[in-house]
Amino acid sequence: MAWVINQAGKKTGFNMIQLFKTKIGWLRIIGFLEGISLLVLVFVAVPMKHVYNNPFLSESLGPVHGALFILFVLYTLSVSFEQNWRFRTTTWKVLASSFLPFGTFYVDYKILKGIK
User: Where is the DUF3817 domain (predicted)?
Assistant: First the structure.
């Protein structure tokens, strides 16, 4: 994440504004939102639909998650071309993370936070 570094070189706080200034930052934000929407769908909306016969959350959150998923894929491809990522080493991992619960959070921590 984007930490604020003081004059002594120590992390003093998190600066969310920095994420909005780069494509990597936007990819991380979209990945976070896509990951949250997937978790809510898998662990809340789908059980509500099948156990309690209440499809409201699935029907309303499904299209939002779909849009975030498509946006995540497009931003991943855009950033991969911009950063000259090799598909076999980086791009496929970032893309695959969007299919797994907690995957986008893992990729953000292991891959994306270290890229400027």
Answer: 25-111
> In angstroms, what CA-CA distances link 44 with 41, 56, 75, 116?
6, 11, 27, 35
Q: pTM for the complete prediction? A: 0.83
Give Cβ neighbours of residue 85 (< 8 Å, ≥ 6 apart).
79, 91
User: Which is nearest to 101 in space by CA: 23, 36, 57?
Assistant: 36
Cα distance between residue 23 and residue 40, in whole Å: 26
pLDDT exceeds 60 at position 6: no
Tokens 């769908």 belong to residue: 41
